[in-house]
Design a protein that fits this description.
This protein has two domains: 159 residues, DHBP synthase; 153 residues, GTP cyclohydrolase II (Rossmann fold), CATH 3.40.50.10990. 38% of the residues lie in helices and 21% in strands. It contains 15 helices and 14 strands. It has a seven-stranded mixed beta sheet, sandwiched between helices. A seven-stranded mixed beta sheet has the order 8-9-10-12-11-13-14, sandwiched between helices. The longest helix is centred in the first third of the chain and has 15 residues. The two termini are 42 Å apart.
Length: 358
């Protein structure tokens, strides 16, 4: 498993630096280059490796926003990309809704194609790298000696694999405002990526149904004090409530922006400033409404010996996810913070479109 994970990690690193990689699944070989990081060197390497036509895979929502007629039911759409359009400026404008849209004449040259058999894995690889989920792909008749090859099976198994390998790498007493008796445990995933934190207030392990909060990291809200969301007040309020209750666990999960990452969240903010809500902004970027997995939370709770909890949340998806992963929910505790005049529309979208119980 470690070898397979390493292959995915290296492929993601190459995509982020603008280098093509190869995905392989049985007889299928697919050259892949992330559209967001595609520059002239990467495009030249792509063309040098194969004489096959190059197509662009992107989310149907993004294609529709560009005025293209595509199958909205497909997980991604494939568009033939003429060689004359294979330039970084055009590609970046094509996939990034924050940028000015491409020339309509150029868009008219994009021809819908059948999605290659392992195209979904190619887009998933870009998502693992927190890149805009849009990739250039071309079939490859044989091995490409200078490019990294990664099995599709490793890409598909990646999220669950790294969660299953969570282990404690550090623990310390960290007195916090509102919870002076707090301890912090850092859990590192198998890929060596950003750690998830378990903040233990008091002695929740000794309680039959401790209060638990799943809190996704939010640099803008938790650290910078952004007024666009309710994350900062929710974080501090949860710690205070746990202290008042005699103990609790706050799991601080490395899942910024509902799993799309900080950079994409900032892009989504720009899109929201143009009139879309938090849900449509994610979709316009090619991401799902919520890309998070709560398997890490269940694994950490299991490590702590906590299998029955009271969940401090307004989000029904968290209740369902933890239950599916074997955590018994003894009850839900509401966790509402008042709007501040700036995040009103954000909270409304969470209630109306995401089903939050506000």
């Amino acid at each position: 498993m470690v070898t397979a994970l390493r292959a995915v990690d290296r492929a993601v690193a190459d995509l982020r630096r603008g280098t093509p990689v190869v995905l392989v699944d049985g007889p299928h070989r697919l050259l892949v280059l992330a559209a967001e990081t595609a520059e002239f060197a990467g495009l030249a390497a792509l063309r040098q490796a194969t004489q096959a036509p190059v197509s662009l895979l992107l989310a149907p929502r993004r294609a529709t926003d560009l005025g293209l007629t595509v199958n909205q039911a497909a997980p991604e759409v494939a568009l033939y990309l003429p060689p004359t359009l294979m330039t970084p400026p055009f590609l970046h404008a094509l996939v990034d809704p924050v940028m000015p849209p491409p020339d309509p004449g150029a868009l008219a040259q994009l021809v819908p194609l059948a999605t290659p058999p392992i195209g979904t894995a190619a887009v998933r690889l870009a998502k693992i790298g927190r890149l805009i989920p849009a990739v250039l792909v071309a079939s490859l008749p044989g091995p490409a000696e200078d490019l990294l090859t990664t099995p599709v099976a490793a890409v598909n198994a990646y999220p669950e694999s790294i969660s299953a390998g969570l282990r404690v790498v550090a623990e310390a007493a960290v007195p916090l405002h509102g919870a002076e008796d707090a301890r912090v445990l850092a859990f590192r995933p198998l890929d060596g990526g950003a750690e998830h934190l378990a903040i233990l207030v008091g002695s929740p392990e000794t309680q039959p149904e401790p209060l638990v909060r799943l809190h996704s990291a939010c640099l803008t809200g938790d650290v910078l004090g952004s007024l666009r969301c309710d994350c900062g007040p929710q974080l501090r309020g949860a710690l205070s409530r746990m202290s008042e209750a005699g103990g609790g666990v706050l799991l601080y999960l490395a899942q910024e922006g509902r799993g799309i990452g900080l950079v994409n969240k900032l892009r989504a903010y720009t899109i929201q400033d143009r009139g879309q809500d938090t849900v449509d902004a994610n979709l316009s970027l090619g991401w799902g409404v919520d890309e998070r997995s709560f398997l890490p939370a269940a694994i950490i709770l299991d490590h702590l010996g906590i299998r029955r909890i009271r969940l401090l949340t307004n989000n029904p998806a968290k209740l369902a996810a933890l239950t599916a992963h074997g955590i018994e929910i003894a009850g839900r505790v509401s966790h509402i913070t008042p709007p501040n005049g700036i995040n009103d529309a954000y909270l409304h979208a969470k209630q109306e479109r995401l089903g939050h119980m506000l």
